[in-house]
Amino acid sequence: MDIEELQTFVEVADAGGVSPAALRLGVSKSIVSRRLARLEADLGVQLLARTTRGSALTEAGATFRDYAARVCVEVDIARETILPAGDLRGRLRVAAPLSFGPSHFAQVIARMARDHPQLHIQTCYTDRFVDLIAEGYDCAIRVGYLQDSNLLARRIGPIHGKLVASPDYIALHGSPQAPDEVAAHQALMQGTEAWQFMDGDRTVTVYPRGRFKADNALALVAAALEGLGIAWLPDGVTDPHVASGALVPVMTRYPPPPAGVYVVRPPGQHPQRKIRVLTEMLMECFARSAQTV
What we know:
Layout: H1 3-15, H2 18-25, H3 29-43, E1 48-51, E2 54-57, H4 59-82, E3 89-96, H5 101-115, E4 118-125, H6 132-135, E5 139-144, E6 152-159, E7 161-165, H7 167-173, E8 186-189, E9 195-199, E10 202-206, E11 209-213, H8 217-225, E12 230-234, H9 235-244, E13 248-249, E14 259-265, H10 273-292
Parallel strand pairs: 3-4, 3-5, 8-11, 8-12
Antiparallel strand pairs: 1-2, 5-14, 6-14, 7-12, 7-13, 9-10
Helix pairs in contact: 1-2, 1-3, 1-4, 2-3, 5-10
């Protein structure tokens, strides 16, 4: 019985089929199928029932999946324990935001790949919410305010933002002067989120309304530049436009509370060393950036 076959079976079981498992593993579907066939032949039982709609675990497969997953975790821990200090190998799947990822995190991830030539890194840049467990990611880099979940999180650093609008919008509609005036304006939002502002030591929550929504911060910047409304956005995407005068900070007496950058991972007793290394590299990068401000 090969550990690679066990890992492949666990991926197929969790992904719900050969094709999505092959995508996660970065190999062809035929390789996945051959590994499964060898494992089933070795065990003498059928682990998966193949259908035209995918693969489903048999009763034996459902029982075996939990044992196989534990074996894979223990082998990963053992490998990390005996590897030379600083040496990483295997696979690391990371989900990162599209709005911030390429500009703020991609270089750190690339440097990690350079420093660890036996490590295979796959990064998905998207602003949609990624289910780490269901989609087979080792960790995610998330920006903003974390929602309650069973995921484990490590804070990397702060992210500051502000409320902005274009001069044309302000000329036509004015600008809110206090949080209770936000609801009277067209808000540019990602969804149905609440906005928070600081009134001294007190946090005020408002529920904006608007007709333009997008799941990407850069798309919201474009809408703000066109005068469609006011937007709460991170400084990293608005600073150039504020500097040029194309966007204007509004309601500055009530700043939003600082958000954060986090590395989140599925729950487990032993965080993989490759996740710890990525986290430490990101923290060092943010610390250097703070010193240069």
